[in-house]
Amino acid sequence: MEFSQKKVESWWRKLKISVSLFFDKKVPWVYKIIPVFSVIYLIFPLDLINDYLPVLGQLDDLTIIGGSLAVFSKLAQQYKKNYAEKGNSQDKR
Q1: 17-63 pLDDT, tens digit each
Q2: Do residues 75 and 34 touch, judged by C-beta distance below 8 A?
Q3: What angle do CA 88, 31, 74 make, to 5 degrees?
Q4: Where are the alpha helices (DSSP H) in 1-93?
Q5: How far is Cα 58 from Cα 66, in angstroms, rounded to an integer?
Q6: 27 near 72, Cβ under 8 Å?
Q7: With a threshold of 0.85, does the pTM exceed it?
Q8: What distance in Å separates the CA atoms of residue 54 and residue 36, rounded to the nearest whole number?
């Protein structure tokens, strides 16, 4: 049970980071399209695997959401890191 609790805590922490990055004004809007499209995919009635198939239908939705949040977080964090490094190098001049 401890393993699953750690997984849930890790997932929750990553979700909170993704949400804070989404509302960060330094992150370009182009990156913010990624999670928006994944939510649209979740709402849209056409799926890669239909939701009426047990487990598989929900699994593809979770994979799309999780993957898009992972990609968005990685890109946004990389951008913020580069943005901060640029700012620090300009301050030193």
Answers
A1: 889 999 999 899 999 999 999 888 888 767 666 767 777 777 888 88
A2: yes
A3: 65
A4: 2-22, 29-43, 56-91
A5: 12
A6: no
A7: no
A8: 26
